[in-house]
Design brief:
Length: 342
């Protein structure tokens, strides 16, 4: 150890001894349903910058929400991070989040990506896109979400279960944008067009399009981006065969959802929680957070170095606020059930 680092160490120890109040801020308990390699770097950088150590509990979103509820007032959880506005809404409806008053966050994260009363925040966004077989489908026929319900595509569509949050939130945006009646008709049209009963995740739908099991699918964009980045010949073949459309470019824009999180009502380390959320809104953290899952940062000034996203290009985003979207998800689920979208 050289002299200056020894001084730094002794200094740090003295500060720690003289100001025990700091100990309350030195830890952050993070409950997360995200697990990407880049997140590790993100957390390490946060600790480096603030001295706040992160204890992470990983789990599935529903399990973590249940756990925080069960722990109640004694919960050690400071921040909960998950994907999809519907999951954030579920946590919010369970009364788990506390509003965060931070000028820095409010200035950086557009209102569209913040929950009601700043009780949660989106930190990156993903698009729900249309994947189509380039040899079998004219791209002009699949430019809009509405096209997916057209009788033209009867027996040609693959999509995962209607009850999955990605489809529930897409349904919520359809209700908001087109009204109850049209939205229910749309869901019925989707079901009428299915090539097979819904099964698997979004990647399975894209692969099914390439394999000829169906001609069109609905997927989050990053599953396609992952295939683009893959060096497996089979994945490259899928990318060759399957094209991507950002829907509704001449209308309201493509439906986007978020990855995000918020501070918990019973957080024992509230100051650390706010610091962490502010950090996630910084340019540096935004790049890591978004890149980890090939998503776009919500902060406009954040610079992303991502070949796949560059190749997909820019698109018009539906400006529907994530908070409003989230409020429509219970109705969306009722419509999905009524349409028989299993
Ligand atoms: Fe996903």
């Amino acid at each position: 150890m050289n002299r200056s680092s020894l001084f730094a160490l002794v200094g740090a120890l003295l500060i720690g001894a003289a100001q025990p109040a700091l100990a309350q801020e030195s830890v952050l308990n993070l409950y997360s349903s995200r697990h990407y390699q880049t997140d590790e770097v993100l957390y390490a950088n946060f600790t480096k910058a603030t001295g706040i150590r992160i204890n992470r509990i990983d789990g599935k979103e529903d399990e973590l929400i249940q756990r925080i509820r069960r722990e109640g007032a004694a919960s050690p959880a400071d921040v909960f991070i998950t994907v999809d506005a519907a999951n954030l809404q579920a946590a919010d409806e369970a009364g788990l989040f506390a509003p965060v008053r931070s000028k820095a966050i409010e200035q950086r994260i557009p209102k569209q990506f913040r929950g009601e009363d700043n009780r949660w925040f989106g930190f990156s966004y993903r698009a729900r896109v249309i994947a189509y077989n380039k040899a079998k489908i004219n791209a002009n026929d699949v430019q809009n979400y509405a096209d997916l319900a057209s009788p033209k595509l009867k027996g040609k569509l693959c999509v995962r279960s209607g009850g999955h949050v990605y489809n529930r939130t897409l349904m919520a945006s359809t209700i908001y944008n087109t009204g109850d009646e049209n939205a229910l008709d749309w869901a019925r049209g989707i079901v009428a067009n299915l090539a097979r009963a819904p099964k698997g995740g979004d990647t399975d739908q894209i692969r099914a399009v390439a394999a000829g099991e169906c001609d069109v699918a609905i997927s989050n964009h990053y599953y396609y981006a992952r295939l683009m980045a893959s060096d497996k010949p089979a994945d490259q073949e899928v990318v060759q065969k399957v094209g991507i459309v950002f829907p509704d470019q001449k209308g309201k824009g493509t439906h986007v959802n978020i990855s995000g999180g918020g501070m918990l009502k019973n957080a024992p380390n509230k100051a650390a929680a706010v610091k962490f959320l502010e950090y996630l809104a910084s340019d540096e953290a935004q790049a890591y957070f978004a890149n980890g899952n090939n998503e776009w940062p919500v902060v406009a000034s954040a610079k992303l170095d991502n070949k796949q996203l560059d190749a997909l290009g820019k698109f018009k985003v539906d400006q529907l606020p994530a908070g409003v979207l989230a409020q429509y998800t219970p109705k969306a689920q009722r419509f999905i059930d009524r349409a028989g979208w299993k």
